[in-house]
Model the fold of this input.
Amino acid sequence: MATRGFFGRRPSADDAARLPPGQYKTEDFPVLSAGPTPRVQTDTWSFTLKHGPRPLASWDWQAFNALPKTSVMRDIHCVTKWSKFDTKWEGVSIDDLLAAAGVEAPTGFLLAHSFDGYSTNVPLADLVDGKAMVATAYDGRPITADHGGPARLLVPHLYFWKSAKWVNGLQFTERDEPGFWELRGYHIYGDPWREQRFTGD
Amino acid sequence: MPPTRIAWQQATVTAIVPQTPTVKSYILTPSTPFDFVAGQHVDVRLTAPDGYQAERSYSIGSAPGGDTIELVIERLEDGEVSLFFHEVVEVGDAVEIRGPIGGHFNWSPSDAGPILLVGGGSGVVPLMSMLRRRAAASPDTPFALVYSARRWDEVIFRDEVMQRAREEDHFTLALTLTREASPVPDVRSGRIDRMMLADTLMVFGDQLPVLTFVCGATAFVEVATMLLIDLGVPFESIRTERYGGAEAKILGPDVAVPDA
Ligand SMILES: Cc1cc2nc3c(=O)[nH]c(=O)nc-3n(C[C@H](O)[C@H](O)[C@H](O)COP(=O)(O)OP(=O)(O)OC[C@H]3O[C@@H](n4cnc5c(N)ncnc54)[C@H](O)[C@@H]3O)c2cc1C
Done:
């Protein structure tokens, strides 16, 4: 049913085609986090790939930055309703990361972990085949702390809370285990095109 | 059993209360009343005749336990949804909402205290729900509110927070105006800074807040949380809600929190 008197500020047809349901286009880059912004220094930074509790591989900042880098340009969609088009990122694709670790994926599910204790679950299939990376640069510059720098996960085809800021590890889990927001009412998978914002959507 | 979806429902606007020249409260009566925890928000959805929809999130300002919810909406001049509320919405209209939403920026009496609230501008809204909840259900829990607004007539819930500070035990208010000198003695002037936060933390004696809730425009939240951490408030005890607006420019540890 239409809302009395509402016509809306309509996006252009081109924009509308790129906007998932309920999203609006913004030119800014809003910030969403559950808490304060941690100041993560690159000299103490590390990234660990695990299977359950068992470490499979680990990199410090220098070693990580020696891995092959990939650049992508993607639209991103935040569950708080804004979408931003054509964002440019550079980082290490999860494909290259797994290859560098020399591991075959032991399970189909992962949890991304962050320096601030945040975690979020993403199925393996949504991380590989060029779909995701650990990003270290945004728009040609190091990622600022408020946007998750020095490194954040980037899974642009899912709602942006899945792109964990201040990421410090990926952990293979036996089953799809809910992370921080997923335990607090947000959707287990988070596909913006199916408007999977909250549990049960 | 699959989890149930938070369904969209019609809510009727049963009252509109001007709060400041640019902020109004909208009292909504949901067709299916729901319980919530102080600090949660709802999503609001507007539909145009051709089916185009706009959605935004708004915090609930009222305390849990009533049949109505209070949304407090600030008018943004180029705002698609906030301007519609201010220009078009009248008592008797219906809008679609769904909620409650949010499982982190929440306070309930079982969390106990002391609790520090830090709000800038309309960021006071979910904090108001917590204050009202405290007064009704847990009046012995120590609370402090550090609250920044631009001008005296732009202080949302001004009379209520000042009255609560006068009448309620264990509640301390530090209110400050960023763009004009305060017309009354116990309201400060200037942006929230390290001193103001340090002074307020002292009302808890040697206890640190068990939880601190910081809400407002993004830049406000960034700087306020940085100052709090600098003052020894544990990182893990700080919960934030960022409403958007201009991006933060972090200048250094001595900066004052930007304009609310
Ligand atoms: C969890 C949550 C709770 C919220 N609770 C409230 C609330 O209780 N009361 C309330 O008034 N708002 C609240 N907001 C913000 C609200 O959802 C909308 O973003 C806001 O009303 C602007 O929407 P709009 O359609 O009017 O403006 P838009 O058309 O979306 O934007 C218009 C312009 O305003 C800018 N802008 C967007 N947000 C802000 C802001 N906060 N400050 C300054 N400029 C901004 C945009 O960048 C843009 O340039 C909340 C946001 C979140 C995420």
